[in-house]
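Entry 14. Two folds queued back to back today. First construct below, sequence then structure tokens.
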Amino acid sequence: MPKSKSRSTLLSRKSMLREEETNEEGMASLSDSEASLAANDSANETANLQTILQELRESCRESGDGFREVKGEIKNVNRRLDEAETRILEAENQQLEEVVMKLSKVQDEFEKLVELEGRSRRDNLRLHGIVEGSEDGSPSISAFIDNLLRDKLDIPKSLDLNIERAHHSLGPRAPPHSIIVKFGTSKVKDEILKRAWQKKGFMVAGRKVIVDHDYAPDVLKRRREYIEVKRVLKEKKIKFQTPFP
């Protein structure tokens, strides 16, 4: 009886051991399957990531190519703009130079005309301040001026004033208009002007008469531009001259 029980117990233990081994083998087989599946999943994910990375690289490469093309186009456009700007500036400079040359020529011609007009007036004097009509009773304005200058400037009868003509000036100013007197020679004209300046003018019918050169309009305009300078020089008693142009 005891021997039979021991054998039965032994068989039972062996059976349990076999089951445990079977279970362990099953578990091991299951673990291997899971590991295999996990490895496959990891490989797939890696492949997918590599694919995505490759696509990103290609996309970046394409974008880079596109950027380079755009950059190249912009560079070409800028170059063409620079060339166009250069041509425009050259054309404008050329036109400006031509305009400056033309203006310079016009200015030169104008200066020549002013000089010619000044020469034509070189033998003239202007008398400012004589009331119009004062010459009434004289044979002519020339005769009136001859007698007036001799009387006011103490000119001897022996000196021939040689007045060729005399007339009232025309202009927009209200009367009295100045009287322009043309002498036969500049020598006589200069002598009369010298005497008039020494006396600082003279009085006629209660009005002061000033004798001066017969300046051209443009010369008068230029002289007015430095009137203030002349005033300051006079205040400081600094002598100066303004030769007839």
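Second construct, same run, same settings:
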Amino acid sequence: FRIVKGITTLEAVWSTGLVYESVYESVACPDMITDKKHGEKIILADLNCHTVTDEKDILLSFYGWTDGNELYYAGDAYTLGAYTEYLQAVWAVTLCVDPTYSGSDSNGSVAKPYSSLNTAYPALLQLLSDDAYAAGAVLFMGDQTVDLNDNTNQIYTYASNDINTNYQTMLAAAGKPLLFTANTPSTVVTYSSPSNVFYIAFNGEVLFNHMTLKLNTKKATRIFTLSGDITFGASFLTFENSISNTTGNLSLGIDYSSNTQSSFNVRIYGGDWAYVYFGSASATRENKLILGNGESNPYVKLICYNNTNCQNSNYGYIRSGRVGNLSFGYPGTDRIVAGKMDITVYGGQIDLISDATTEYSKTTNLEHCNRYLTFDGYTGSVVFSHLNVGTAPGTAGSYANGINRISFINHTNLNIASNDVYLKASPVAAVYV
């Protein structure tokens, strides 16, 4: 330490810690974290869907972590408190599915798996009625197909409209969080309904991890929950080239509009995604997206508003991965969009940021929509695209589709590769550095 002229004050920095507890002696946990301080964030460890058997010889799969009050997922950014924190593993009671098993004595174990989701899921619901289990899991063993048209044991409810029959399938509610996983991350599980389904719904909290999902559905398919959060872990994969959206291997997207809870969180830590559609018609609802765990590399081709009259508050936190187009507009027909879209970029790569997606984004359509963009400690380069929505071609307009505020904080080093950045013509429009 170099002494300089004048009075030098040194302030003590007290470290805090984090202890992981697996509950089962046979399961090793990451070492105690001791080199962090109060207020720092850490990425919660992933036990990679580790399995263990309990005292009743019931198979369990790692689901997440709890501090006794809240449930956290592997990859979440956890803020350390002033004292050492203790996080205990949450285990999901698990039933295995292997279509090659031909025995008549299936019980869901590794040795005697069920041969289909249709037979395993009712048994899992029965197990989850026991208060001893906080979550449930389906473990797919080997490549296999889940036939969404097969409603044996009535595990699905379907929705139809004037144009599409059974376009949406919803798995029966479990009442507790569900995990869908596989024996290896490369195990391909194909959700199949080539003539009907392109909406896959759940009614409760859901986690997909440690598996590869393939969609043989009617067209590009959106997945969502009506209640509860939905998470895609860092070892969740989509089948090769799914983003190209070809017959038999359709692309996957997220839709917020049908969820009815006041706050709906979507974590995308893995996989390739065609789109994430923000927005709800209810102004009281809050939607959140967490993209990347800071180390993982998911890809989302388009993040934007849904093609609906969105009225709510929407927040996005981009920690790692890649975004093809971060659009502060909507992708379709003439809509009136209000509410808020507030995106913070910490890391990852964004190919394009645009304040409109199509020519439908006219002045009045986005006039009451508040949009905010923050780069927090970010280093990188982006391209901005602006759509002039003036009253006549070539005439300067009110730029109602401009972003309200752009902030560059915590030593952000951003190169704007091309095009000017337009702010909304508003008394509150600002650039914050």
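Quick look at the second one. The longest strand covers residues 85-97. Residues 8-90 form one domain.
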